[in-house]
Structures are given as structure tokens and as C-alpha cells.
Design brief:
This protein is of the alpha/beta class. The protein has 16 helices and 15 strands. A seven-stranded mixed beta sheet has the order 4-3-2-5-10-15-14, with helices on both faces. A hairpin with a 7-residue loop joins strand 6 (about 230-235) and strand 7 (about 240-250). It is globular. It catalyses: L-arginyl-[protein] + 2 S-adenosyl-L-methionine = N(omega),N(omega)'-dimethyl-L-arginyl-[protein] + 2 S-adenosyl-L-homocysteine + 2 H(+). It is found in: Mitochondrion. Arginine methyltransferase involved in the assembly or stability of mitochondrial NADH:ubiquinone oxidoreductase complex (complex I). Keywords: Methyltransferase, Mitochondrion, Transferase.
């Protein structure tokens, strides 16, 4: 869950981001340790970058989210935007909220409750297939504010039979947040019988059992940015890509990178989806010229791959083949100092201020790691995981894509499905529409195309 996270207050007017607790990476074998350290994170055997990130964020004892049970903030009362004078008054209010919250981050669905959740509920209400009972899955439900807001809206605006027969399932890896969600949704007695929390890793296929062949909705609000990523490296413009692994120097207990030929399945799949290997192909003459140029003017390349997203979508498409998706996240992050395409921000918050690190290896349980979402790539991964065969891969196939997809700016989505007047201040300033220029919402629904 995101917006106004470790960037507060430096990027307050353009970047609102907060953490969520959802784990969808590969679980590591854990070792006992008094505190999170480089030895605990890596041990004596090198690990892939995604496994290092997963441990740094989600290890049950030493991970960033595990150590900060109050990382997801909850507002006691909704903000009355119509009573605020304008931009300055809004920033002053947020400053006060964050000083009181100490380590907590606030999600957009929390800052703009109930209006943000109501916009999502309206989008579902307009497009859902009501020939079957409505079923909604939310990945990483935080404090339960989104679930309660959606169910409140459906109770008031959906046909009675839709609300009465609906099911809302939160898939949440944090036991403390799972308990909080039950408390939040349970504030409305009629919601409670329709809501349940499954405390598990959403990317673990075994947790989904036989799956669900009926139409359903999957909501992922600011989940993708905290999913583990992998890193690949190339010494120059012509050298082949290499997997990046993290190892510990036995003498100094310091972390460093090591490079291996690409063999990992998730990394290979991401590279194929991106068509990265095409960059090294060409005629013999062109290859020779490029090789010489690369040796004279070497330019190392680094590329971050959303392998955690790929794994999650593989599982979701396998378990819920008729699902529709609503996912929101950052489309870019400002002032990222870590090198590489789609590189993350690694940030620590102390005394209400954020401190950005220059290396992801500095994350040792005390830092948030969050990535921008490449929505063009997200769409390609979504199509790939749905089983769509690209025309150039199978020229005999006349099947169309199995998903209809749409990416909207947050402001465009809320203007279409939300109630923007509810988040407008007295002078016309609207933080929900004006402060989310670097966030987008992705919609994906199944078509009637068959295999």
C-alpha cells in the first residue's frame, strides 16, 4: 500500500507513499540471529537479489515490515477536505498526522477514506458479472480500510442481492494486520459474515488449493512496489546479461555482488517478455563493430526485473483464470540514486525524516525498499501469464489476447469512478487529483477468447 512513505516531507506535493505488508517472493531458509545483519541475510551461500530483498523486507523476525508492526497507519477520523483552506492547510495537517504517528506510513485509501475505496467499488459495480455471486480478493489488505470502504459502498449502492451474496477475502501475510482487518471490517455487523482473512503468502500456489473457476475480482493497492525484484548486469553494451547474486565476504562480513550466467527461470522469463536478448543480435559485421565500440567505450548496464510480480501473476492466473484485476502503484519515483532501469528507492525513516541509501545492499531490516511499476511491462506480464501466444510465436494461431487491459492516471480513474468533490478543499485544490501525478491504476478483465 503506498503514497507518502519515506519521501515525506521532501516530495510531499508530488509523491504520497506508504508501506504495505504483503509478501510474494521466494521464502528463504532462516537462520537464528540476535539482530538483522549481513550474516543473517546472506549466510555462507550467495543468494539472488530477489531473495536478499525478500529477507530484508519480510523475514518474520528481522525484516523491515516485521519489525515495524505499526508501519501501516490508521487515521482515527476521515479528513474533512471541504473544511481545509487549500494546499498549505492540507500539508500542515499531514505534517501533524505524521509527527503523531512516529514510524507509520499512510496509504491513499487511508488518507482519502472512504472516497478512494468508493471509487474502486464503483468501478467494480459498473463492470462486474452479477450472474454469479460477487467475490473479491484483496492482496495485502493493510488495516482493512479498503475492504470496509468497498463493502460500505456496495451495501448502499449495489442491488440488495449483490451485497447479501458477496464474499470478500483478504490474503494477508502479516498476522497482526490480519487481526486488524477483522476489527475494522467488523465495525459493521452485516459485513462480518461476508468477510474473511487468509493469513498466507499470495504467491504460494499451494495456498489457493484447487483455485476458483468463477469470475472474481483481485485488488492490489500498492502491492507491486514492494515485491522482490531481480537484477541483471552486463559489463558493456555488447556483453551478455548476467544474473546478480549477493555474497558475504567471510573475512569482513561485508556484502558484494557476484555475477553468473543467466539460468534462473523467472529471470529468463522476464528477459524474454522484455525481448532483452534482441539487443545483442544482428549481422556479423554489425556485431564486430559493436563489440569494438563496447571495448573502446564500455558502458556497464544494469536492469531490474519484476520477478516477484511475474511469480504472483503466474499463481493468480493459474488459481483464478477468470479474475479481473485492479492494481494501483507508482509509475516512477523521483531522485533515485541507485543505478539501473526500474531501480528502487531504499529509505529509512527516523524522527519523522527520511534518509535515502545509495545501495540496496544497505537495507538490513531498517529500510523500506520500493520500486516504480513499469505499467507497459506489467501489461505484457499479465498477457504472458494469461497464456496468450504471441502471433510471431505461433503463426497458425488466430486467437486474440485473453485480457482487455487499461492503464489510467489516478486522477483520471477517480474522475471517472470516484467523487472528486469530496476531496476538494475550499480554494479548489484537490490532493487526490493533484498530488498523484506519478501513480497509475491498472485494469485487466478477461475476454471470451478460448485456448
Amino acid at each position: 500500500m503506498v503514497f507518502l512513505r519515506s519521501t515525506f516531507p521532501r516530495y510531499l506535493s508530488s509523491l504520497l507513499h506508504s508501506s504495505k505488508v504483503t509478501s510474494c517472493g521466494t521464502h528463504l531458509p532462516l537462520q537464528s540471529s540476535v539482530s538483522f545483519s549481513t550474516h543473517f541475510a546472506v549466510g555462507d551461500t550467495p543468494i539472488l537479489v530477489r531473495d536478499f530483498i525478500h529477507a530484508a523486507l519480510y523475514d518474520p523476525k528481522h525484516g523491515y515490515f516485521s519489525q515495524r508492526s505499526r508501519s501501516v497507519g490508521v487515521l482515527e477520523n476521515s479528513i474533512k477536505f471541504n473544511q481545509l483552506g487549500g494546499h498549505k492547510a492540507y500539508l500542515q495537517l499531514l505534517d501533524k498526522v505524521y509527527k503523531l504517528s512516529e514510524l507509520s506510513w499512510f496509504t491513499p485509501v487511508e488518507l482519502f477514506k472512504p472516497w478512494y475505496a468508493h471509487g474502486i467499488a464503483e468501478a467494480i459495480l459498473r463492470t462486474a458479472n452479477f450472474s454469479v455471486p460477487l467475490k473479491i480478493y484483496e492482496i495485502g489488505g493493510g488495516s482493512g480500510t479498503c475492504a470496509k470502504g468497498i463493502m460500505d459502498y456496495l451495501k448502499l449502492n449495489a442491488p440488495t442481492r449483490v451485497y447479501d451474496n458477496m464474499t470478500y477475502i483478504s490474503v494477508e501475510i502479516s498476522s497482526s494486520l490480519a487481526k486488524k482487518q477483522l476489527e475494522t471490517v467488523g465495525e459493521v455487523q452485516s459485513h462480518f459474515s461476508k468477510f474473511r482473512v487468509e493469513c498466507r503468502d499470495a504467491a504460494d500456489r499451494s495456498g489457493w488449493g484447487e483455485g476458483d473457476q468463477q469470475p472474481c475480482w483481485v485488488i492490489m493497492l500498492e502491492v507491486l512496489d514492494n515485491l522482490p525484484h531481480d537484477l541483471i548486469y552486463s559489463a558493456n553494451q555488447f556483453s551478455p546479461w548476467m544474473e546478480v547474486w549477493v555474497e558475504k565476504h567471510s573475512e569482513r562480513s561485508e556484502l558484494s555482488e557476484m555475477y553468473k550466467p543467466v539460468q534462473d527461470r523467472l529471470i529468463t522469463s522476464c528477459m524474454e517478455i522484455l525481448d532483452l536478448e534482441k539487443t545483442t543480435q544482428g549481422s556479423i559485421a554489425t556485431s564486430v563493430a559493436r563489440n569494438i565500440w563496447a571495448k573502446v567505450f564500455p558502458k556497464p548496464r544494469r536492469c531490474w526485473l519484476p520477478t516477484g510480480c511475474l511469480k504472483l501473476l503466474e499463481v493468480l492466473h493459474g488459481a483464478l483464470p477468470k479474475m479481473s484485476i485492479i492494481a494501483s502503484d507508482f509509475s516512477y519515483l523521483p531522485d533515485v540514486s541507485i543505478p539501473g532501469e526500474r531501480a528502487p528507492l531504499v529509505s529509512t525513516k527516523r524522527d519523522g525524516k527520511s534518509f535515502d541509501h545509495n545501495s540496496y545492499l544497505d537495507a538490513k531490516g531498517d529500510a523500506d525498499i520500493f520500486f516504480p511499476t513499469d505499467f507497459w511491462l506489467l501489461e505484457r506480464i499479465d498477457h504472458h501469464c494469461s497464456g496468450w501466444i504471441k502471433p510471431h510465436q505461433d503463426k497458425s494461431s488466430k486467437l486474440g489476447k485473453k485480457r482487455r487491459t487499461l492503464t489510467l492516471d489516478t486522477s483520471s480513474f477517480m474522475e471517472e469512478f470516484g467523487l472528486p468533490s469530496k476531496t476538494r478543499t475550499k480554494d479548489g485544490y484537490n490532493p487526490l487529483l493533484d498530488d498523484f501525478k506519478n501513480t497509475k491504476i491498472y485494469l485487466s478483465v478477461p475476454t471470451h477468447n478460448k485456448k
